[in-house]
Automatic annotation (TrEMBL):
Domain Metallo-beta-lactamase: 48-251
Any Pfam family: Lactamase_B
CDD domains assigned: ComA-like_MBL-fold
Name assigned to this protein: Metallo-beta-lactamase domain-containing protein
Protein species of origin: candidate division WWE3 bacterium RIFCSPLOWO2_01_FULL_41_18
UniProt xrefs under SUPFAM superfamilies: Metallo-hydrolase/oxidoreductase
Lineage of the species this protein comes from: Bacteria, Katanobacteria
Length: 297
C-alpha cells in the first residue's frame, strides 16, 4: 500500500462517513470478508480480466464475471461462509474468456440462484464449455434460473436495485463485437450507487438515455474494458462524475491496458483512480449512506 494514497483515501472517505453520521471503524490490511451488516464489494485482483464479488447485508452472494482463470475460486472460498458454495446471483457481462473462464470453474463448484446473461455467443472453447455446464446445471437444479438482461427487467435483492441500462429491451445477439453487448447496470443501495460496465465500448453509452442516470449520483465506477481508450465516452463519463474509478487490469498485459488517456481523463474530472494491477484487490464497503474504500497493497 502506498501510504500517501491510502491516507488520502482514508481522509476522503472518513469525511464522507462523518457526513453521513456513520460510526463504524475503518480497517486496512485484513482481506477476509467481515460478517457484518454492511455491503462489501470486492474487485478481485484476477489479472487481465474482471471479477467482482458482493456480499449483501443479509449475507447473499453475488459474482459479476469470473476473471481469466480459476483463481476466482481461491478468493471466493475465503469470502463465503464455510460449507457448500451457494451464490444468489451470477452475472456474465459478455462471453469473452477474461470474464467467463472463472465462471466455468464456479459452476462446477457452486450452486447458483440466478444467472444473468445475454444472448451473445462466442466461438470459443471456453464459451462452448459454459453452455454445456449451464445446460447440465439448469437441468439438475444446481442453477435455478437463467435470466436475460434487459433494461425493463431490473433485479432487486436484499434492498439492492440492479438497474439494467444495457442491453435495452430488444435482443442484442447480432453484434459485430461482443463488447457492444456487454451488460451495463447500476447498483443502488440507499444513497450508494455504483456503475458496472463490463467491457462496453464507446457506442453503448450513446444509446443509454441520459434520463436513465439523471436520478443517480455515482460514487464508484467499474471503468469499462480494463481502461481501454475505446470505451472512453467522454461526454457520458463527464456527466456521470464518479468519485472513485476502479480499473480491473493485469500487470504488463499485451493490450497495454489501461490507457493513459483514460487515467488522466478520470483524474482531471476529480475521480480517484484505483487499479487492481497496482492496488491488488480493492474493497468498497457501504451501509447505503457513506462508504469506505480499501486496497490490498
Ligand atoms: Zn475484458
Amino acid at each position: 500500500m502506498r501510504p500517501k494514497k491510502a491516507q488520502q483515501l482514508f481522509i476522503k472517505f472518513f469525511i464522507l462517513a462523518l457526513a453521513a453520521l456513520l460510526s463504524y471503524s475503518i480497517a486496512y490490511g485484513s482481506f477476509r470478508l467481515k460478517d457484518d451488516n454492511l455491503i462489501h464489494l470486492k474487485f478481485y485482483d484476477v489479472g487481465q480480466g474482471d471479477s467482482i464479488f458482493i456480499k449483501t447485508v443479509h449475507g447473499s452472494y453475488i459474482l459479476v464475471d469470473g476473471g481469466p482463470d480459476s483463481r476466482v475460486l481461491n478468493f471466493i472460498v475465503k469470502d463465503i461462509k464455510p460449507g457448500p458454495c451457494y451464490l444468489d446471483l451470477v452475472v456474465l457481462t459478455h462471453p469473452h474468456s477474461d470474464h467467463l473462464y472463472g465462471l466455468n470453474e464456479v459452476l462446477k463448484y457452486c450452486r447458483v440462484g440466478v444467472v444473468l446473461t445475454t444472448e451473445i455467443k462466442a466461438e470459443t472453447k471456453v464459451f462452448g464449455k459454459w453452455e454445456e455446464l449451464l445446460r447440465e446445471a439448469t437441468s439438475s437444479g444446481r442453477v435455478k434460473e437463467v435470466s436475460l438482461a434487459r433494461s425493463n427487467n431490473d433485479i432487486q435483492l436484499d434492498g439492492i436495485l440492479f438497474d439494467v441500462l444495457w442491453p435495452l429491451n430488444e435482443s442484442v445477439s447480432e453484434v459485430e463485437n461482443e463488447n457492444l453487448g456487454s451488460i451495463v447496470f447500476l447498483f443502488k443501495y440507499g444513497d450508494f450507487e455504483a456503475l458496472f460496465t463490463g467491457d462496453a465500448e464507446m457506442e453503448v453509452y450513446d444509446e443509454i438515455s441520459p434520463d436513465a442516470l439523471s436520478d443517480y449520483e455515482i460514487e464508484v465506477l467499474k471503468v469499462p474494458h480494463h481502461g481501454s481508450s475505446d470505451s472512453l465516452n467522454k461526454e457520458f463519463f463527464e456527466k456521470l462524475g464518479p468519485e472513485v474509478s476502479i480499473i480491473s487490469v493485469g500487470r504488463n498485459n499485451k493490450y497495454r491496458h489501461p490507457s493513459l488517456s483514460v487515467i488522466s481523463f478520470f483524474k482531471a474530472n476529480g475521480s480517484t483512480v484505483l487499479r487492481t494491477d497496482e492496488d491488488g484487490t480493492i474493497e468498497v464497503v457501504t451501509d447505503g449512506k457513506g462508504y469506505e474504500v480499501s486496497v490490498e497493497r
